[in-house]
Amino acid sequence: MADIDLSQEIRELRTTFASIREVVDPSALEAQVVELEAEANAPDLWDDTAKAQAITSRLSRAQSQIAKLKSIDSRLDDLEVLIEMANDEGDASSQNEAKAELTSLQADIGELEVQTLLNGEYDSRAAVITIRAGAGGDDATDFAEMLMRMYLRYAEKHKMPAAVLDISYAEGAGI
After folding, report:
1. Residue 26 — very low, low, confident or very high, per pLDDT cuts 50/70/90?
2. d(CA 123, CA 126)
3. Which ranges of the chain does DSSP label H, i.e. alpha helix?
4. Phi, psi (5° rounding) for residue 2?
């Protein structure tokens, strides 16, 4: 069986991951965790429940993000070893396992990249989307309905709560 060469894909993943790490800044994140842990260990923390929930929520998010970064870094290193072992053994199942792990890592890093882009002050809050068909007759109203279904499925796939607040059906087709 021929050796698999995924070095280009791994280089691309490492470059993307390095960009993510640069934006996230793990050392600043770890410093934030230490600070939040100190606040969370304060004896009077739960005197103000809203503040306590905010602190514990931020702490949990920061710890989760650090764990995810460490996990992906470790998986990237393991993938290189897995590919080397698969090439040494030369069997198809090891090579398929390496390719499957590469695909999984690409998906996880892609998801992390999107989360990194959405790390602004208001990005964790709810959004309201308004879809209007405008001019264009049945085609426009039909397309507006397709857009609504697309957004609802996206939210469902990514486990985001979604609700249609108001809808007005067109005479022919669509909304």
Report:
1. very high
2. 8
3. 7-24, 26-40, 49-89, 92-117, 137-157
4. -75, 145
